[in-house]
Amino acid sequence: MWLRGLKVPKFRCFSTTTEPEGPCILSPIPGPCSTNLMNEMSCYQASPKLPFLTTSMCGACANEKAMKSMMMAYQAKFRNFEPISEAHITSAVKNMEPGSTTLSILSFKGSNHGSETMGVLTASHCDGKTKADLPAFNWPIAKFPQYKYPLEEFSCYNEQQDNKCLTSVRELIEKGRNDGCSVAGVIVEPIQDSNNNEASDKFIKTLQKICKENCCYFCIDETNTGCGATGTLWSHEQINLPEPPDAVTFSKKTQLSGFFHNIELNPQDGSRLQSTWSGDPSKLFMYESILNVIEKDYLLCTVNDTGCCLKNQLVKLQQNHPFIENIRGKGTFLAFDLKCPGMRNEILNNLKNRGILVKSCGEKGIAIRPALIFNQDHVGIFIENLNGILCDYKKAPVLNKHRKKKIPKYKPPCPEPCPEPPCNPCKPPPLPTCGICSPKKKKPC
């Protein structure tokens, strides 16, 4: 890309093309072209009722901005949408109340919302290494459902998990209100990327209802599940919420990061959410091309068909290899567990040695994260290689080290006092005798 007036030779030497006569960029970015692009993207948005888009630099920035927006909107509602007073501005500079508030964002155990900023780091609870040595806000952490699979066979247990976790959400919101640390918003992943644990439709719907009842905002983090990996452009579209969430964050596969939101999350004053580059809006061109390819090549249909085939093949594989368990996920956004971490790591390395790229997931899981063009032919290759590795693993003696060790038989201790040198624990020492005792039976006196 050439800019008019770029005359520094050391920069020009990086290009293999000659400098064009006229400028390649005819208008600033953001400008009229990017504004039109944002308007054209309305049909691809998370919901027709989320007409606003705020861009950012990465997924963590998108979640951070969404959390800041929820807090600012909560405070604006608290002061009846009056402008920020001078007292608030002056005290905020000193990190003091009333400008600096004690609001909080509720997140869930096992969540991963990023690690680049302090807010998302506080809301992430999957990797202690990224949080070690760093301060964190005193924000509430609710339980996330831990389902048993297949879902239809454990429906009663899974429903109890939903109720238990939703009860913890209600209690934490109430506790925050009583302690002066009100919950301004709730952020949740439809499928947690760190362990691929998914939330049921009932859980997400009830969670949104709880947020409405307590006047706090509801944000769905789609930075990992967005852009078609679950079979729909946005994973929460499959839930059929009664009304759209207040915010939906996205990143990664979209090449652009940011969040869609309603009018309430628009800041009262300008420049409160802007960064230096405002999230590089020029990537709207890349995102538009991706959306066009998804629509033109029917990639969402491909993901649904391929995901169904892949899950069925994994279930069949599970019947022959009981090492596999807890097959879960939507579309091609799938994962499964193995019996122990050691087994998972060995199978993971063997898959990579065969040219199959998968990643670890949770304590003992393997996550499958293919491209949208992943089809049923690729499924056959993957299943064939995975089956071969499992068959070899079953035959290999290395399997023994992952089995539970046998408990050794109990051996009674030597009688006291023990003669010198120490006796052999396998052979009891001779008992003391006297002349009266029978030398044959050697019974003690």
UniProtKB/TrEMBL annotation:
Domain of life: Eukaryota
GO molecular function, one term: pyridoxal phosphate binding
Protein's UniProt keywords contain Transferase: yes
Cofactor(s) required, per the database record: pyridoxal 5'-phosphate
PANTHER family associated with the record: 4-AMINOBUTYRATE AMINOTRANSFERASE, MITOCHONDRIAL, AMINOTRANSFERASE
Similarity annotation: Belongs to the class-III pyridoxal-phosphate-dependent aminotransferase family.
Name of this protein: Uncharacterized protein
Native source organism of the sequence: Brassicogethes aeneus
